[in-house]
From TrEMBL:
Gene3D superfamilies: P-loop containing nucleotide triphosphate hydrolases. Pfam families: ABC_tran. This is ATP-binding cassette domain-containing protein. Residues 3-257 form the ABC transporter domain. Residues 263-310 are annotated as: Disordered. The keyword Nucleotide-binding applies.
């Protein structure tokens, strides 16, 4: 995908007042690349991510919705600015969009399997049920959840498990581009790393492009090699993570670089004593989390997995 000088605004109730959330951003994501989008709260990350996922290009969208008001935003070679609804819907079938609150958006009355399968039947109401079930099982397995959870309702799962279900749902149509907005929001540190590693391993196997949005540098640097930093709706850093933070000019990036140096200097290897490594002193629920994140068999690569350029 490619954004050239893209500006995005929100139309308020009063049509005179419009809020510019993103102002003149350039951003490219190559096929098969993972890019981290970093910035503090309110810097415009979700607005930009949503626009890339097709939420801001529609002609005549209503109040309170984002609207691309300048520049050009192309995904899979198609211009999103001013796109019609039907063309947008077709295009976004190739984009897996994990919204910030996607786990809370799971239907409480559908089982995990039904929630994950829902995009398949939205795309094609007459899709073969047996094939859909097989695809759902593959997706559940790929995000390292036990297949036994498929018949459960979302409220019977932990928040980390729900997040994985949301991820399975975002990936069920084998998108060529994944846009994941705060994919680890509300998840404790141990499970958080495992969710990120799951995305990285799926991306490695299926070779899709990904935009990973976070306000935490540790999240972005765990999964992406390239980072784009947003501040007040403009890009203040873009490049390989080490380069962006080596000698930054921007005040905000300088602050992040300093925090990164401090964090790194604090990380000292934990002493290990023979025979005492096995979860000693770890709370039972944490041990459970560790067990829950054990490596699973490699997910089967479904036919037709997206490899096309974004
Ligand atoms: N529906 C809306 N109407 C008007 N302004 C909005 C709307 N949604 C977001 N904004 C404003 O746009 C700006 C960017 O918001 P956005 O959600 O993109 O930031 P963010 O970097 O993703 O923040 P966070 O990390 O807190 O999610 C903010 O100033 C926000 O107040």
């Amino acid at each position: 995908m490619s954004a050239r000088d893209v500006s995005i605004r929100y139309r308020a109730n009063n049509t005179q007042s419009r809020f510019l959330a993103v102002g003149g951003v350039n951003l490219d994501i190559a096929a098969g690349e993972i890019v981290g989008l970093l910035g503090e709260s309110g810097s415009g990350k979700s607005t930009l991510a949503g626009a890339i996922a097709g939420e801001a290009g529609l002609i005549g969208s209503g109040e309170g919705t984002p609207e691309i008001c300048g520049g050009s935003l192309e995904v899979f070679g198609r211009e999103l600015r001013g796109i019609g609804r039907r063309r947008r819907d077709r295009l976004t079938l190739r984009i897996g969009y994990l919204r910030q609150d996607e786990a809370e958006r799971l239907s409480p009355i559908l089982t995990v399997a039904e929630n994950v399968a829902e995009p398949i039947f939205r795309r094609d109401r007459r899709f073969n049920v047996r094939e859909a079930n097989a695809a759902v099982a593959t997706a559940i397995d790929a995000v390292r959840l036990p297949l036994g959870l498929m018949s459960r309702l979302p409220h019977e799962l932990s928040s980390g498990q729900r997040q994985r279900v949301a991820l399975a749902r975002a990936l069920i149509l084998e998108p060529a581009l994944l846009v994941a907005d705060e994919p680890t929001r509300g998840i404790d540190a141990l499970v958080r790393d495992s969710v990120l590693d799951t995305i990285a391993s799926l991306q490695h196997d299926r070779v899709f492009s990904a935009l990973i949005v976070s306000s935490e540098l540790s999240v972005v640097s765990r999964i992406a090699s390239r980072v784009v930093v947003l501040q007040h709706g403009v890009v203040v850093g873009d490049g390989p993570i080490d380069e962006v933070f080596s000698d930054p000019e921007d005040y905000y990036v300088k602050g992040l670089a300093k925090a990164r140096r401090l964090e790194r200097s604090r990380v000292t290897p934990a002493p290990t004593h023979p025979g005492t490594e096995d979860h000693q002193g770890v709370q039972p629920e944490v041990v459970e989390s560790i067990a829950d994140t054990r490596p699973a068999p490699k997910p089967k690569k479904a036919p037709g997995a997206g490899r096309s350029a974004t």
